[in-house]
Design goal:
By secondary structure, the chain is an all-alpha fold. The protein has one domain: Hemerythrin-like (Four Helix Bundle (Hemerythrin (Met), subunit A)). Helix 1 runs antiparallel to helix 2 and helix 1 packs antiparallel against helix 4. The mean pLDDT is about 95. It binds fe (ii) ion (FE2). The site of fe (ii) ion has 7 residues, from helix 1, helix 2 and helix 4.
Amino acid sequence: MPFMTFNDTMKVNIEEIDDHHRTLVSLINELYDAVSAGSGEETIAKVLPELINYTMYHFFAEEDYMVKYSYPLYNEQKMEHAKLIEQTFELYDRFNAGDKISNDVLDFLKNWLNDHILGLDVDLGRYLQGIGVV
Ligand SMILES: [Fe+2]
């Protein structure tokens, strides 16, 4: 069974955003597989920056929607995004300094993606549907 699965409750019903979230789930699973297979720092060193880059790309895409459609919670969400990016960069710095990616770190990533989707993005999806964008 994969470490994390994308299920229907996580759907925000905006195809582009749902696709991004599926990709993020896959990247977290890839990282988990690399860590649990003990497949070496090399794979982790490849997957971790990919996850960070993709997260930034994804957040910017969401922020584009928010700006374009005057989402009232834009400022809060942008701050939340910035905080998450900062945390992932800290993680990357610690990894580069020689820290191992522990199960706690993997749980942290899984939880933040879950909370991000269920807490913030489901609302955004509802808002966009409410104004007839999707
Ligand atoms: Fe998102």
